[in-house]
Amino acid sequence: MKIAFEIIKIGAFLMAVCALAAFGLALTNRATAPLIAEQKRIARELAMKEVLPGAVEFEDIELSDGRLAFNGKNSSGETIGMATIVSPKGYGGVIETMVGMDVDFKVTGIKILNMQETPGLGAKAGDLAFSGQFKGKTGEQLYLSDKDIKKGEIDAITASTITSKAVTDGVRQAVEAMKNAE
Amino acid sequence: MLNELTKGIFRENPLLRLLLGTCPSLAVTSSLENGIGMGAATTFVLLCSNALVSLIKGIVPSKVRIPVFVVIIATFVTITDLSMSAYVPDLHKNLGLFIPLIVVNCIILGRAEAFASKNGILPSLLDGLGMGIGYTLALCLIGSIREILGAGTLLGASLFGPAYQPFLMFVLPAGAFLTLGLTMGVMNWLEKRKA
Amino acid sequence: MMNDIVVLVIGAIFVNNFVLARFLGICPFVGVSKRVGDAVGMGMAVIFVMILASVASWFTFFYVLTPLNMEYMTTIAFILIIASLVQFVENVIKKMAPALYKSLGIYLPLITTNCAVLGIALLNVQNGYTLTQTVLHAVGASVGFTMALVLLAGIRERLERADIPPSLKGAPITFITSGLLAIAFMGFIGMV
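^ inputs. structure came back:
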């Protein structure tokens, strides 16, 4: 009986510590969550300006499949393009990519927002040498130039076929999704 | 008193002599900036946990002290994680998985168990500070070597001009191991010469 | 589907080897790699703990923390789960294989602070894996860890008879050797 009481006492102490920890963290979370959300918003806006050069205003579009998308308008208020975010599954995890395209569904730019690919290899997907290739391409051209089901115009990163294919597929899906949404 | 502060820097350097905290030392030292950031974060957690552990050492039942220390450390690590995400998002992104992994950095639990749970608050703070600084210096050393050799930059600033072809290997895993091993070897050699 | 499984497991064992590429699990890697026998024993324990811990933490994250909007408790929850599991495994090994228990010594409770175990639990939920993917990932990662550990132990046993400069004896030469192993593993990169 005494042993049971000992265990309960120890357990209760640990639970008390956990409860205090949870309380402290809940407070910290409340203080930092808005800042974190703001950081995300700023990063997103910067990405949007990068993939839709010339756009100064952005307007959310509601897509039927719940996907996040926006119109980009220039200073005269005309829609110059659209952008959406795709998350293809890469090698080390999901590769969150923002894809911008003009009103003719030609890619105007892509920006990788989040990825966990291998540094020095798949991580090069973020470099301009790879991501810059997508500019000006249309749906048909969005396949790898080698080792893909169709011959396209995107050169894969050496020894990072999976990452390259994932990003390429993602960009193509983005263009197709926007086309179908129209 | 001063001894508590300085021992962590050279003689009992947690990374290079006690072999504690090796995982982050390989993973985030691809640049000097990341090394400084990780060192600072670890030092912060170390200070807070040493202080709190020392404070409550009287009332913690001995049988449950390790889990209690771990929860305390994990709490400060989470605070650090959230704060970094809010205030220094780029550094947070670079250090990634290794910020929550600070909780299993053997240095922190090690010092809590070996020192803070048996000493007063001020010595514990100094011990934490000394160990933290020592760790940060070690990280900076490795980070600098790897960045200079592997990328030709330091803190992002190019040192040798654009024509320099860096030893890419040094910012990759193999280079990390080699740099750490050679640095430790040099430290040992210096110790032997002093003796 | 099959392709996904192969990529996940092979990737975790060779290309993204937890120790030699991701730097998780270095402390036991350096500490228990002196004898091949110890390495194998430690590896088995790690495989067991990693798979169980991955499953337990996955459930906790998706069925407890997320519905309650308490993701900030992830680190605490995961480390407590891991600590309890290690305690449990320790008791089991003590009863069933006392010789192994003795030779693993302090390194068994140290699995708790093995960054590989907490690391994989976090990676699983960060990547949003399904339960199946989580288990496969855990299997791959722990097998990869064990493989690297046993490889290094084999090399270190031979190194004992080599003539190493005194400053490099012990940790330094271990790291340098690991670096060479890492370079060798880089050769797997083109595989996937």
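Chain A is about 40% helix and 20% strand. The longest helix of chain A spans residues 2-51.
thumbs up if we can close this ticket
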